[in-house]
Design brief:
By secondary structure, the chain is of the alpha/beta class. It folds into two domains: about 1-155 and about 320-345, Rossmann fold; about 160-320, Rossmann fold (3-Layer(aba) Sandwich), CATH 3.40.50.2000. The chain is about 40% helix and about 15% strand. The protein has helices at about 20-35, 65-85, 120-125, 140-145, 185-195, 210-215, 235-240, 260-265, 280, 295-300, 310-320, 320-345; strands spanning about 1-5, 40-45, 55, 90-95, 110-115, 135, 150, 170-175, 200, 225, 245-250, 270-275, 290. The strands form two sheets. The chain has a seven-stranded parallel beta sheet, sandwiched between helices. A six-stranded parallel beta sheet has the order 10-9-8-11-12-13, sandwiched between helices.
């Protein structure tokens, strides 16, 4: 079985800092090979994923300088990658919507993992390609879409990369884009109400610079509220591993929330506001708490009583990369077997 994994051309695989989709692709590529699956990753030339790679653009480009420029680069990369992959792949697995446009010109089966939150324009676009096998990353996401061939496969990560620290330091953490939907301002409010210091890490995108300047930066004093910038894997592990709890006060319908399982892999509970897939990822009282407002989460922060080993065990059981890879192998196998049956029926 030969699988072409096509990444967007903006961020290396794996990402050096920001890049949830690119982390997913890197983890999946590595584990699929462990299961005996041949993998080629179509990405940018500076990628260092543990798999054979092909690329059209040598360097990534993030953040994007402009929507038009980014769209044209994405289309160019996707059309090139799909044309190349169609020659020697059994299945082409894409991870961005523009790539679907080129599925019309090939006979190779296509899988598309939907990484983004619900948008009607995307949902309508997906409906034009009913022959594609869609993977949603949460049941919440799947319930609000209507493509005929669709299943949920939750994300997974490699637990061995995330050591558990039983002795936590006296601070809360926030890791994610500094943006209103992620609720960075609410993380600050929770920390202030709980009386527990907060360390914030994540990207400040140009579009949200005003939000940073008005809602976040005024509270950053370098002592009680710290901003640490963007982080790579080693820095994330240090931040999350030492943290009493990670705050996830989202203000949107989160399609999955990869950072939640990264925190749990470190034995760190997640304190989250309900929304999107949060209820599928966090198990109340076992790996964290889910509440309806900042005041309630502050109360949870003041009364933490989680066992880091129990938090880690929950993550390993439900969100390991091995489980994720097995489910993708099952999907690929079903697609190829159904293709053989259809050919046999035509011949008969």
């Amino acid at each position: 079985m030969k699988i072409a994994l096509i990444a967007p051309p903006y961020i290396p695989v794996p990402p050096k800092k920001y890049g949830g989709t690119e982390l997913f692709i890197a983890e999946l590529a590595r584990r699929l090979q462990f299961h005996g699956v041949g993998v080629t990753v179509y990405t940018v030339g500076e990628s260092q994923v543990e798999a054979p790679t092909r690329w059209l653009y040598e360097k990534g480009q993030w953040p994007l300088k402009g929507e038009v420029e980014g769209t044209l680069k994405g289309l160019s990369h996707a059309s090139w990658a799909i044309r190349e992959a169609a020659h020697d792949s059994d299945i082409i697995h894409v991870n961005s919507a523009p790539a679907l446009s080129f599925s019309r010109f090939i006979d190779t089966p296509v899988v598309h993992t939907v990484h983004h939150a619900y948008e009607k324009e995307f949902a309508d676009f997906y409906g034009v390609f009913p022959e594609v096998s869609y993977v949603t990353i949460s049941d919440f996401q799947r319930r609000i879409l209507s493509m005929p061939k669709m299943r949920t496969i939750h994300h997974g990560i490699d637990p061995s990369l995330y050591p558990v620290k039983r002795e936590k330091q006296q601070y809360l953490s926030f890791l994610g884009r500094i943006a209103p939907p992620k609720g960075t301002h609410l993380a600050i409010e929770i920390a202030q109400k709980a009386g527990i210091p907060l360390k914030i890490a994540g990207e400040i995108q140009p579009i949200y610079r005003g939000y940073w300047e008005s809602r976040v930066k005024p509270h950053v004093d370098g002592k009680f509220i710290e901003y640490l910038g963007e982080m790579g894997l080693a820095e994330k592990i240090e931040l999350l591993g030492n943290s009493m709890a990670m705050l996830f006060p989202i203000q949107w319908h989160e399609p999955f929330g990869l950072v939640m399982i990264e925190a749990m892999a470190c034995g760190t509970p997640v304190l989250a506001l309900s929304g999107g897939a949060v209820d599928e990822v966090v198990k109340e009282g076992v790996s964290g708490n889910i509440r309806s407002n900042a005041g309630e989460l502050a109360e949870c922060a003041r009364n933490l009583s989680f066992d880091s080993q129990v938090v880690r065990a929950y993550m390993e059981e439900f969100f390991s990369v091995d489980r994720m890879a097995r489910e993708y192998v099952n999907l690929y196998t079903e697609i190829l077997q159904n293709g053989v049956k259809e050919v046999e029926q035509i011949v008969a």
